[in-house]
Amino acid sequence: MKISSNELANHLAKTFNSIYFISGVEDLLIIESLDTIRKAASKNDYTDKTTYTVSGQFNWSEIDNCFKNQSLFGGKQFVEIHIPSSKPGKKGSESITNLIANLPEDALLVVVAGKLEKSTKQAKWVKVLLKHAIVIDCSKIYPSQFPGWLQNRLKVYGLGIDRDALEMFVALTEGNLIVAKQSIERLLMMEV
């Protein structure tokens, strides 16, 4: 099932799955999606969290064994795998595929990748994730979409804005979602 990053909170309020796959190019949306999943995981008693970041000569045997070393008294396991390049290689593809096939019932797996190129979408590990995971799409917010995104974000925080002010806000933040979020947070601190 594929959902957008702004649908994630509603999805998690209704159901909590064991596999999530976050990918895209908008860093803010990726960070917020991951934070939303982490909060939901905490509420669902996933307390034994391990994070792996794949780079260079990553040791995939760590991933292969990540759910095998369960403590008798530990909480439910939560594993995050970050693949910034979106290219885990042959061994990585095998490890991710095997991990999903043998995922313990009470485990949570979150895979975070960057933009998926056309060739990457054909990779076995991506196909397996697309089949078994809730896929959170953090696609690019284009300049034509940015004013609407910004206006919706302001509404979330209970702030209204007229058209001229919105145009100025868009110009000042130059389409940068992180700068826009920080600017909104500053407005909230000033209690505008």
Low-confidence stretches: none
Question: What is the terminal separation in angstroms?
Answer: 39 Å
Order of helices and strands: EHEHEHEHEHHEHHH
Q: Can you name the CATH architecture of the largest domain?
A: 3-Layer(aba) Sandwich
Biggest sheet character? 6 strands, parallel
Number of helices: 9
The CATH homologous superfamily of the largest domain is called: P-loop containing nucleotide triphosphate hydrolases
- Shape from CA axes? globular
Beta strands, count: 6
Global mean pLDDT: 91
CATH class (first level) name of the largest domain = Alpha Beta
Strand order of the largest sheet: 1-6-2-5-4-3
- Count of domain modules: 2
Question: What is the CA-atom radius of gyration, in angstroms?
Answer: 19 Å
Percent strand: 15-25%
Helix percent band: 40-55%
Structural class: alpha/beta
Q: Per CATH, what is the topology of the largest domain? A: Rossmann fold
Keywords: DNA replication, DNA-directed DNA polymerase, Nucleotidyltransferase, Transferase
GO molecular function, one term: DNA-directed DNA polymerase activity
Pfam family, one: DNA_pol3_delta
InterPro entries: DNA_pol3_delta_N, DNA_polIII_delta, P-loop_NTPase
